[in-house]
Amino acid sequence: MTETGTTPGSQSALRExxxxxxxxVLRRDGTRTQAELARATGLSAAxxxxxxxGLRAAGTVSVRDTSSNGRRARAVTLLRPPxxxxxxxxxxxxxxxxxxxxxxxxxxxxxxxxxxxxDAGRAVRRAAWLVETALLGARIDLGTxxxxxxxxxxxxAPDSGEVGAISCLARWAGFRPAEALGxxxxxxxxxENDANLAVVxxxxxxxxxxxxxxxxxxxxxxxxxxxxxxxxxxxxxxxxAGEIGHIGLDPRGQVCRCxxxxxxxxxxxxxxxxxxxxxxxxxxxxxxxxxLREVVASALDxxxxxxxxxxxxxxxxxxGVAIMANLFNPDRVVVSGDLAEAGDLLLEPMRRSMxxxxxxxxxxxxxxxxxALGEDAPIRGALLTAARSLR
Length: 391
What we know:
Layout: H1 8-29, E1 32-33, H2 34-41, H3 45-57, E2 61-68, E3 71-78, E4 84-90, E5 94-100, E6 106-113, H4 120-137, E7 145-152, H5 177-185, E8 189-193, H6 194-205, E9 214-219, E10 223-229, E11 232-234, H7 265-268, H8 270-275, H9 288-300, H10 304-328, E12 332-337, H11 344-357, H12 360-363, E13 367-370, H13 377-388
Parallel strand pairs: 4-7, 7-8, 9-12, 12-13
Antiparallel strand pairs: 1-3, 2-3, 4-5, 5-6, 9-10, 10-11
């Protein structure tokens, strides 16, 4: 790699690559003078001086005066390897970014409203810009970022990293978000299903602490589940484990986007629920998520039509979870998403339905609870996953 002949668009990536070269030498060889770093990396003395200045400002290295061959020199010591982690959360109507430390604690956040579903490539470009904005606001150099994890509302093939054909982001089918975001940032990126990340966070920080067999439901446009069995995340052979929304409940029901009829999603997905509203319910215009929140608020305010919609959703959801409970025998099921804000209006019909469809032994040691982290669960899980990759 040379330091000349670069275009303006490549200068930032080159600077970050050079910074990593300096850090790698310090990690391998220990304390070195700036002159020794220049020789080991092949960079100019001026470039090394600028890089060391930036690393010192970030708290990554210490610098002290010393002597080498009878001349004054500056000795550079690595205090800690770059350990900043970044989480990117692609939602249907927004992109969120969180910057964390090496333990997964949140240091900074940014979010923008954005139609993620419309164009995968543009959404990734916006996400990369938002990452850079968050880091700039926190005064953290991109070169200190060691791991990036992206949350995607759909199955991710473990071998190719491609988004599955059936997801809430139809135009993302076959797209490789980790690869695309990694190219924009110049960093390695892992993409993971949002429900999988949510269950990671709830086990570490939220409603599933102390449980080793957990099913985390994420309710939205679709219905996904993150599954932990014996303390380990279960993805399945092709990354589609947990697609509970496509459990068939009624062979004569509505046609689902997957092509089958009567899938669980057609009973509890946001769009389907809004279509069930009586014409007398005049919701404010806006995104479906905001309108569903109005329905939940009306139900909590004892509106009978809204309560009926949520009760029927709970009954259908209980039927689907009963099948999962018989298969996996979890000790905890965590329900998250806007619909979960209805609390017992949703959970009680779920419990009754599960009692009818689940083996008694499967319910003997079983808790049904709502999320403690809410919509933060996927992004917190992404930070924790990124942090754990450093160990």
